[in-house]
Amino acid sequence: xxxxxxxxxxxLQSLLCHQGFGLSxxxxxxxxxxxxxxxIECIERNISGNNRVAFLNELQxxxxxxxxxxxxxxxxxxxxxxxxxxxxxxxxxxxxxxxxLHPGIFEQLAPDISGNRVLDAGAGxxxxxxxxxxxxxxxxxxxxxxxxLLRILEQxxxxxxxxxxxxxxxxxxxxxxxxxxxxxxxxxxxxxxxxQGGEPGLAELQRVTRSGGKVVIIWPRPQDYAWLDxxxxxxxxxxxxxxxxxxxxxxxxxxxxxxxxxFYAHNPQVARFIERERxxxxxxxxxxxxxxxxxxxxVIK
Length: 301
Ligand SMILES: C[S@@+](CC[C@H](N)C(=O)[O-])C[C@H]1O[C@@H](n2cnc3c(N)ncnc32)[C@H](O)[C@@H]1O
What we know:
Blueprint: H1 9-17, H2 25-31, H3 37-46, H4 49-60, H5 65-78, H6 80-87, H7 89-97, H8 103-113, E1 117-121, H9 127-134, E2 139-144, H10 147-156, E3 164-168, E4 181-187, H11 198-208, E5 209-218, H12 225-230, E6 234-237, E7 247-249, H13 253-263, H14 269-277, E8 281-283, H15 284-287, E9 294-299
Bound molecules: S-adenosylmethionine.
């Protein structure tokens, strides 16, 4: 729980205020029983005004240690990925290094990228931004809230310093001017939840893209297909039927096992598959996630 101090205020407000993370005031307060003044103040400062009184009351309440343990498990489970981005960005990099996007995505987007100004929102350590440089983008604005991931992106991008502009920022306040990019992409980051985009995030992606330009959501969550459709997006999958299944290609057997135990602990068949097959490439179906071979696009009027 002490790791929650890793977030900045904007991130905490988003984590604590939006429905997306589904944290109740009770779980939050109970999870902080016995924690340091520093982390409690951090949460108290960023919890919305109407929840603050209830939060302080629950913090004072006498609860059995098992209740506090259970609340900690709920909170840490919900914040698992956000904590990964902020606290252990190198581990996240190890995971996504092997999680390659289907090359057909960027082959299809090439005419929208080449010679153009591109925004990558929720850029992480630059997986999609890198592809945009490879496909000839004139400039890529890589916007990302986690300082650790942005640092990795900057290190990876030293050779492309003139093309990639790393910027701290979030979907609801993208730090680039109106109509300043030809293409706005977001890869495995934008969702229908306001904490990860939603209506305010989409309005920002539309604001920064010029008329006639495109907003492209790469590798959307299946549960967001209907939302994206309602907002005018067209869906494309680039994986032909019957071709070999896409895999995550970890750097080594050891790295595959480490990632399986850390990121897929809830799905023991992943570690079992790696141990049994002695393979460092793991099919997406074993991981239980849809492969990164689709995107949704919208032309800005
Ligand atoms: C699954 S990662 C994907 C990163 C990168 N686009 C990639 O494909 O590797 C999701 C990213 O979204 C970022 N993110 C989370 N909430 C965000 C927000 N409200 N605004 C912008 N980015 C956000 C995270 O910090 C993280 O880097």
